[in-house]
Amino acid sequence: MNKINIKFNDVTDVNKFVHILSKYDADFNLYCGSYCVDAKSLLGIMTMDLRNSMWMTGNCEPGEATQIIHELGDFVAA
Q1: Are 25 and 75 spatial neighbours (Cβ–Cβ below 8 Å)?
Q2: Under 8 Å between Cβ of 64 and 24
């Protein structure tokens, strides 16, 4: 999976984001600057400053990546 820019508006968005990713067996990392957390960890994401730009990477199959990006549509930043 390529680097995907992620944007959260509030804590509810983070909860929905984690819920979506938790359905998949792949591993995902969320980055904010040099800080990296497990993208399936609600607590990990909450330690980040949600106002800053973030990006996500993962190790899933290409077909699965397309489905995940579609499901995360509300959180994918341009």
Answers
A1: no
A2: yes
Can you read off the two tokens belonging to residue 57?
A: 């990477």
Check if the beta carbon of residue 8 is closer than 8 Å to that of residue 16: no
Summarised one tens digit per residue, pLDDT across range 37-59 is 999 999 999 999 999 999 999 99
pLDDT at 62: 83
pTM attached to this predicted model: 0.91
User: CB under 8 Å to 62, separation ≥6 — which residues?
Assistant: none
Q: How far is CA 71 from CA 19, 36, 56, 66, in A?
A: 11, 22, 14, 9
Kindly state the helix (H) or strand (E) to which residue 18 belongs, with its residue range: helix 11-21
Using left for φ > 0, alpha for ψ between -120 and 50, and beta otherwise, residue 33 falls in left
In which region does residue 44 sit, left (phi positive, over 0), alpha (psi from -120 to 50) or beta (all else)?
A: alpha
